[in-house]
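User: Please fill in residues for this 526-position structure.
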C-alpha cells in the first residue's frame, strides 16, 4: 500500500497502527470460585546448601568478621530475606545432605572436625555452620526450617538422634545435650525431607527400593514433623506412582482394620525441576550475553513446570482425590554455565531472564495451589538462581529477588483462578503463550494480579476482568529493562529495581494494563 493510503487507512481505523500491530493483545478473566484454595506462603521457600559461597560468605561470616553480623550470620542478607517475608528454608542440601553427619556441626566451633565436601568440588568443610547456626539463621529471618535428612550415608537411628537433640524437652538427656551446646528451649522442625534425589546422589535407588526405605524412616521419624518424600526427577512420573503404590499405606492389601487402611504414611511428596537454555546438562547455555534463541529455549523449558506438576498431580489424584497430600517442588530454578570459572561453585549471573522465569514459575505454582503447597528455589545466595549475590562485604539483590518481593502480596491469600487468552510468543521452533498470569484475593477484598510478558520485543495490552466485582482503582509495579540480560552489578545503581506501572487504568469496569516487553508486574485492584 502507498504510504499516504496507509496513513489514511490507519486514520480511519481500517488498520492497526504499526505500533499497535507490534503489540500483544491479551485478556485475563478472574473466575469466581468460593472453594478456591489458599496460596501457601511456603511456595516462596528458599534452599541453602553447603556449596560454593552459598553458606560460607553468603550467610555465615563468623562472629569476628568485619562484615556486620549477629552471632556470625551476616545482617544484610538477613534483612533482605526478612523484607520478602521468606517463609521457609531447606538445609543442608541437596546432595550435600546425603553426606552430612549432624554431630560434626554441633558443640564448640573450634573442636568441630574439618571434613571434605565430596558432593561439591572436594572443598574443605569447617562445620562452623551447623544445627544451631542454621536455626539461629531461620529465627533471625522469621522463617521455618526444613531439614533434609541423610538417607544414603546415614541411618534412621542417626536421623532420629538429630531430631531428638533438636526437639526433646530440656529435662531429657537429648535436651540437656542441646542445652550444653547453648540452646535450652526445644526447636520446632515442621518439615523433614526423607533424603534428597535418592534416584541419584541420594543412593542411586530404584523407586521401589526408596519406597521401602521411606517406610522405615517414617516409622522412626513420623512424630517429629511433616515428612517429605524425596524428589521425583522432573518428568519421572513412575517415581511418584511407585512410591505412592508401595508406601502410602502400612498394609498394601486391605486389612479388616479400616483404621490402619486409612492411616496414610505420606503427607507430602516432592519433585525437582531445573531450567536449562542449552541442549543438555553438558551445555546448559550462557547466563549472560545470550541470544534470543537462548531466551526462547529457556522460557519454553520453564513453562514445562506446568505440565510436570499437572502430570504428577494427576497420579496423586488417583490415590488421594481429596488432595490431602501436598506436593512440594523441593528444588527449582535456572541452571546456566558457571560464571566464575569454578563449575562446582554453581555461581551464575542473574538477569532479567531469570526474573521473568521466576514470575511465570510462581504463577504456575499459584495456579496449582490446591496441590502445590511448598517450593524451594535453588538457591538462596550465590548459587544457581540466587536471590542475593555477595562479593565479600558487598551484597546485591537479583531480578529473581525483585519478583519474590513483588509477589509477596499473594502469600496466604485465596487463589483467584484465571483464564488467560494470549497469543503465542514464537521464535524458531518455540511457541509458548506470551502472557502468564495468576491472581489472588486478600482478606480485606483487594485483588492482586501477577502478569508476565515473556515476549522480548513486544509490549502487551492486557485487559483484566473480574466479573461480579466493581472496580474503582488499579495500581501496580513492574520490573523491566531494555536488554534481555540486564542485571545488577556491585557498586552500581540497580537497573531492575521495580518501578510504578504508568499505563494502568480502569475502563468500562475492567482494568487495562500495558506491560513493557519482557516484564513482570503485579497489579493491585480495589
Ligand atoms: O541445587 C544443586 C543440586 O542440584 C542439589 O544439590 C541437588 O539436589 C540437585 O541435583
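Assistant: Residues filled in for all 526 positions:
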Amino acid at each position: 500500500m502507498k504510504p499516504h493510503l496507509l496513513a489514511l487507512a490507519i486514520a480511519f481505523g481500517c488498520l492497526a497502527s504499526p505500533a499497535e500491530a507490534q503489540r500483544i493483545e491479551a485478556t485475563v478473566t478472574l473466575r469466581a470460585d468460593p472453594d478456591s484454595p489458599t496460596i501457601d506462603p511456603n511456595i516462596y521457600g528458599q534452599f541453602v546448601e553447603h556449596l560454593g559461597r552459598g553458606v560460607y560468605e553468603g550467610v555465615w561470616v563468623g562472629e569476628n568478621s568485619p562484615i556486620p553480623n549477629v552471632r556470625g550470620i551476616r545482617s544484610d542478607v538477613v534483612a533482605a530475606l526478612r523484607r520478602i517475608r521468606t517463609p521457609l528454608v531447606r538445609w543442608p542440601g541437596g546432595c550435600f545432605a546425603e553426606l552430612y553427619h549432624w554431630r560434626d556441626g554441633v558443640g564448640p566451633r573450634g573442636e568441630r572436625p574439618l571434613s571434605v565436601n565430596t558432593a561439591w568440588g572436594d572443598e574443605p568443610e569447617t562445620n562452623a555452620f551447623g544445627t544451631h547456626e542454621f536455626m539461629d539463621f531461620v529465627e533471625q529471618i522469621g522463617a521455618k526450617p526444613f531439614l533434609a535428612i541423610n538417607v544414603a550415608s546415614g541411618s534412621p537411628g542417626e536421623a532420629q538422634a538429630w531430631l531428638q537433640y533438636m526437639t526433646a524437652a530440656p529435662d531429657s538427656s537429648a535436651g540437656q545435650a542441646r542445652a550444653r551446646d547453648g540452646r535450652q528451649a526445644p526447636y520446632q522442625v515442621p518439615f523433614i525431607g526423607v533424603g534428597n534425589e535418592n534416584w541419584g546422589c541420594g543412593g542411586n535407588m530404584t523407586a521401589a527400593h526408596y519406597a521401602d526405605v521411606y517406610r522405615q524412616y517414617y516409622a522412626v521419624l513420623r512424630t517429629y514433623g511433616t515428612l517429605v518424600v524425596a524428589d521425583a526427577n522432573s518428568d519421572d512420573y513412575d517415581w511418584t506412582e511407585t512410591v505412592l503404590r508401595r508406601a502410602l499405606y502400612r498394609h498394601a492389601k486391605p486389612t479388616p482394620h479400616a483404621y490402619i487402611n486409612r492411616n496414610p504414611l505420606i503427607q507430602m511428596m516432592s519433585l525437582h525441576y531445573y531450567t536449562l537454555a542449552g541442549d543438555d546438562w553438558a551445555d546448559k547455555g550462557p547466563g549472560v550475553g545470550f541470544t534470543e534463541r537462548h531466551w526462547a529455549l529457556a522460557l519454553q523449558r520453564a513453562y514445562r513446570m506446568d505440565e510436570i506438576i499437572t502430570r504428577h498431580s494427576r497420579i496423586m489424584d488417583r490415590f488421594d482425590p481429596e488432595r490431602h497430600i501436598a506436593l512440594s517442588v523441593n528444588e527449582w530454578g535456572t541452571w546456566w554455565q558457571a560464571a566464575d570459572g569454578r563449575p562446582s561453585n554453581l555461581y551464575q549471573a542473574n538477569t532479567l531472564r531469570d526474573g521473568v522465569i521466576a514470575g511465570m514459575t510462581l504463577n504456575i505454582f499459584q495456579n496449582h495451589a490446591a496441590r502445590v503447597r511448598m517450593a524451594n528455589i535453588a538457591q538462596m545466595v550465590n548459587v544457581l538462581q540466587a536471590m542475593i549475590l555477595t562479593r565479600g562485604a558487598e551484597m546485591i539483590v537479583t531480578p529473581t529477588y525483585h519478583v519474590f518481593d513483588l509477589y509477596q502480596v499473594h502469600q496466604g491469600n485465596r487463589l483467584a483462578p484465571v483464564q488467560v487468552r494470549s497469543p503465542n510468543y514464537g521464535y524458531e521452533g518455540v511457541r509458548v503463550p506470551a502472557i502468564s498470569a495468576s491472581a489472588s484475593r486478600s482478606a480485606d477484598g483487594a485483588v492482586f494480579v501477577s502478569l508476565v510478558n515473556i515476549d522480548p520485543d513486544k509490549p502487551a495490552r492486557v485487559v483484566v476482568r473480574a466479573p461480579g466485582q466493581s472496580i474503582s482503582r488499579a495500581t501496580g509495579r513492574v520490573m523491566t529493562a531494555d536488554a534481555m540480560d540486564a542485571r545488577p552489578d556491585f557498586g552500581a545503581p540497580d537497573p531492575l529495581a521495580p518501578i510504578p506501572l504508568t499505563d494502568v487504568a480502569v475502563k468500562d469496569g475492567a482494568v487495562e494494563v500495558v506491560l513493557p516487553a519482557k516484564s513482570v508486574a503485579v497489579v493491585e485492584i480495589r
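For context: The pocket of alpha-L-arabinofuranose is lined by residues 49, 93-95, 196-197, 331, 378-379, 384 (CB under 6 Å).
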